[in-house]
Amino acid sequence: MERKLIASNKKARRDYYILETLEAGIELAGSEVKSLRDSKANLNDSFAHIESNQVLLYNLHISPYEQASYMNLEPTRVRRLLLHRSQIRKLLEKISQRGFTLIPLQIYFNERGFAKVEIALAKGKKLYDRREDIKRREDDLKIKKMLKHKRLHG
Questions:
Q1: Using the 8-state DSSP alphabet, how is residue 92 labeled?
Q2: Which residues lie below 8 Å from residue 9, measured CB to CB, with a gap of 6+?
Q3: CA 124, CA 97: separation in Å to the nearest integer?
């Protein structure tokens, strides 16, 4: 069994330079795990922050599980990420530099069935950087099309 992707943050790679990624566990309630198994999660606009030696994940939206009774929790509640103390210390060192932030890239179930979040140490892109990336992607696509056309029509 391989990892089962639940949700990914597509805007993250567009809006940020990803410098380093890290896998973290996530503290969840039972009904939240069941919602995740149904792929009812949204990572858009979510971010992580370190407070009192804990990494907290904000704005992760997990829809309430329909079959759960009164035990449903707030969909966008703050959730704790499970990391080793040494990992948190290293992240805190890097984040203290200006312009760095922690953003979740994807949430998934690993081979053992545990919910994991891939978080990234990232630096925000400026608007002109994003435009350059789009232009570079379009140019690469044009070149690929021309080469393909050239191979087909000799």
A1: H
A2: 43, 44, 46, 103, 104, 105, 106
A3: 13
Q: Which residues contact 121 (CB under 8 A, 6 or more apart)?
A: 18, 19, 20, 21, 22, 91, 94, 95, 100, 101, 102
* Correct CATH for 4-125 of 3.40.190.10, 1.10.10.10, 3.40.50.11290, 2.40.280.10: 2.40.280.10
Residue 59's nearest CA partner among 103, 115, 12 is 103
So what's the pLDDT on residue 99? 79
What pLDDT, on a 0 to 100 scale, did the predictor assign at position 1? 52
For the chain, give percent helix, strand, coil, nearest 5.
Answer: 35, 35, 30
Is residue 48 within 8 A of residue 56, CB to CB? The reply is yes
